[in-house]
Design a protein that fits this description.
The protein has about 80 residues and is an all-alpha fold. About 80% of the residues lie in helices and about 0% in strands. It has 2 helices and no strands.
Amino acid sequence: MTEMMNSGIELMLIGMGIVFVFLALLIVMVKIIASIIQRFFPEQPVSATSPASASTSHTDANVIAAISVAVHQYRNKHKGTGKE
């Protein structure tokens, strides 16, 4: 019985050690790849005066206006039916 317990504990420690080494290696490799990507493909800063930000605010205003009109029409249509 003691021999089986020792074998089980030994197998458990070997398995946990292999998993620990694999996860540590995975973390190291992800950090290395991230640093390589940052070096060769740096992130471009986005300026506040870019045309994308201006069109986004204009689009947002149009979307808000369309939603407001739709809600207003829905409320007027279903005013007396009690299905609000």
